[in-house]
Design a protein that fits this description.
2 copies of one chain form a homodimer.
Chain A (H helix, E strand, L loop, with lengths): L16 H20 L3 E2 L5 E3 H4 L7 H5 L3 E3 L5 E4 L4 H10 L7 E10 L11 E10 L4 H18 L4 E7 H11 L6 H8 L2 H15 L4 H11 L2 E2 L1 H12 L3 H16 L5 E4 L12 E7 L3 E8 L3 H6 L5 E6 L1 H7 L10 E5 L4 H13 L4 E3 L6 H11 L3 E5 L1 H6 L1 E6 L5 E5 L1
Parallel strand pairs in A: 1-5, 7-9, 13-14, 13-15
Antiparallel strand pairs in A: 2-4, 3-4, 5-6, 6-12, 7-10, 8-9, 10-11, 11-12, 15-16, 16-17
Helix pairs in contact in A: 1-5, 1-13, 5-11, 7-8, 8-9, 10-11
């Protein structure tokens, strides 16, 4: 068994303490901001019925192909969730007594059998907020405002939200000459712009049977991006005031009322992959890194499960990337290491518990090591302070706390 | 699709906000205490290679039978973890550079295809602490002390830790006349005492081929339980000072040094199900409810993966039960609901953001409802305070905050 080629399942990974300390801080920050907006915590299972995960109108063909599905021991078809939105829709449909709007946040693992690239895993995490039960653009504005507050709190400077609208994209595509039956395929091609570039998108649109004239018009639209007011004027000149433009105008006006005057642009090239979006779509864009999250309005997806439509909007934070982009503030949870020298354990253990009760995070030697080995351990673990307790300290009743970085010392009563 | 018999996967459940608010509080409390002992956060994947999950010497036959296993899309045998300890062992074996002792906590979902009973699910949560790399009983004492501190912080009064030792159990079984080859089966039978009663255990021991005389002796031992000093004296009279007794004595002396003088008993009927235990075993026992967690020392399990033994001890908190046993302090995260009447949205939204920035959790009407409908909503959601903003408030610049329980009102500047 020692030779069993010990490994993680391909595409999965462990998160050791030095990563988790940083990640937990990022999670706390997001949670605090989410709760300030009145989003409430929800948990749903990792396992869902295959019927739910594969329902038409949810994630779409590509996602369903990537989903882990299998039979349980009673031969039921089940699978692992590929996002937190479809399970939320199922939850809403099953709980019609819920007071609306229902605003929830959820953190959790999701699974997708994707090609493995740097920073891409088959088991990863999302941290979502969604508002269910209102078609008001105020809900979308809250989602975007909340995301901006989150990135500010995380200390992300070079950040903005790219905003577009599926209704607008549809109408521009139709205006360019795309047939209604080809809209979804055209959107799927546009969504790949960052991955396959202008040439790639053109080729895919052409494969859909879209004319070269239409493709040129579409590629012209996709270049339109910038300050909301200016972009909206441009679009109105081209396509008049359609539903997509109306929604965007309303959304932007709410953002301004809330006090958000920058950190967002309208970008017509933004499509977002999921098929279920019906109105505004958003992407959180961080400098040269690109997307660190995204979402949009999906007014018809819950209806797939509920029987009648329930409007909804939300965003998913790519917490894996967000945690990696943060400068770690510390790598250890432990504040103090108590080094023990000689026959002083009784006093040291009592002192240790006293510090813990005061709210400090304290480790004490568990291996009966020499003082130098104990200091080496504290150092390698990144524990910032050490208190040595030996026979001398026992006699005097005082110990010295040493800062491992600055070397500063402080006398303290045991 | 509306008729698809919408449901959770059998044996799984959603945790709605009113449960999650309470659960998150319990998690915060445990996390704070764990960190005060210097335990560091770790995450491992839900998916593990089947080779790891089914390795001999890990969970044992019964657990492996209950484990979800399947093939991924490249035909690899994988499965869902049935505990957090086996993945930890795999992690330790894969990371031999880790400074020892390695103390970690982990919260996460686990999956077991068990019979479904009240309060028993196929997807549930554990919250574990483990100390790796030391065979000192001080590590076991820390685990027990930490558990006692946790239950105090949770406000659990009628609580104690039952302690036993596998080495002691083995030697008592041998002393009673059980053959060495039958020890594991005998332990498995004893572990079922709470479920199948004295008669059931006797029958199972008999089925193992253990003589009636031996069974009577064993049943006599299992009755021994109580204050550590008294129990230890009794055992020494019967079986002399064997390794199990030595370990228990040391463990208890450390607990006393740390300042823990009550809330634990030695109970010879405690066996614990997992096969991997090698020394002290513990169970967290809450009044008439029974077990809310348990664990023990497993000095040989990591060696299955690492090639050579690495000592370890730990405990798992049944966080599902713990959360249910806590009296919920509140059901909503939201502190204040802002009710909006008339054409005042601009002021209301700016005020809302001001309160959020101050650290308050605030919701504002997203549905353009009548005042009475807004108050009804705030009430049904359990939001404790409401601030009404209408044209009058706009003129005067002052609004009234109303406590929804007491009816008390407070004037405040917008």
């Amino acid at each position: 068994m020692a030779n069993m080629g010990l490994s993680n399942v391909k595409g999965t990974r462990d998160l050791p303490p030095e990563d988790m300390v940083n990640r937990n801080e990022a999670i706390s920050i997001l949670k605090r901001i989410f709760e300030s907006y009145g989003f409430q915590p929800l948990e749903t299972p990792g396992l869902e019925n295959w019927e739910v995960l594969s329902a038409k109108g949810t994630g779409g063909r590509d996602i369903i192909d990537q989903t882990y599905n299998f039979k349980d021991k009673s031969n039921r078809s089940i699978g692992l969730r590929y996002d937190l939105t479809v399970p939320l829709a199922r939850f809403i449909a099953m709980n019609k007594q819920l007071a609306m709007p229902f605003k929830r946040y959820q953190y959790g693992k999701i699974w997708r059998y994707e090609e493995i690239k740097k920073g891409r895993y088959r088991e990863f995490y999302q941290f979502d907020i969604d508002t269910i039960g209102t078609d008001s653009m105020l809900a979308d504005a809250e989602i975007i405002g909340c995301a901006i507050d989150c990135t500010n709190a995380l200390g992300f400077r070079d950040f903005n939200v790219r905003i577009n609208n599926r209704k607008l994209l549809d109408s521009l595509l139709i205006y360019a000459g795309v047939e209604k039956s080809k809209l979804i395929e055209a959107l799927r091609a546009i969504d790949k712009l960052d991955k396959i570039g202008v040439g790639g998108v053109k080729a895919e649109l052409s494969q859909c049977g879209i004319s070269n004239g239409a493709i040129e018009k579409i590629m012209g639209f996709l270049k339109i991006s910038g300050k909301p007011d200016e972009v909206l004027k441009k679009i109105e000149k081209i396509a008049g005031e359609n539903d997509g433009v109306k929604e965007l105008k309303q959304l932007i006006s709410y953002l301004v009322m809330m006090g958000f005057k920058s950190k967002y642009v309208i970008d017509l090239s933004l499509a977002r992959g999921m098929e279920y979006y019906t109105g505004p779509v958003f992407e959180l864009s961080y400098g040269s890194i690109g997307s660190i999250g995204g979402g949009g309005r999906y007014d018809r997806m819950i209806g797939i499960f509920a029987g009648s439509d329930i409007p909804a909007t939300g965003i998913s934070f790519g917490i894996d990337r967000i945690a990696e982009l943060r400068k770690p503030q510390k790598i250890a949870v432990t504040d103090v290491f108590i080094a023990v020298v000689g026959d002083v354990l009784k006093v040291a253990l009592a002192f240790c518990r006293k510090l813990r009760k005061k709210g400090m995070n304290v480790e004490i030697d568990l291996l009966g090591r020499s003082l130098s080995k104990q200091l080496e351990y504290a150092n390698s673990r990144g524990i910032p302070k050490v208190i040595v307790i030996g026979e001398k300290e026992l006699k005097t009743g005082f110990a010295t706390e040493k800062d491992m970085k600055t070397g500063k010392q402080r006398r303290m009563k045991i």
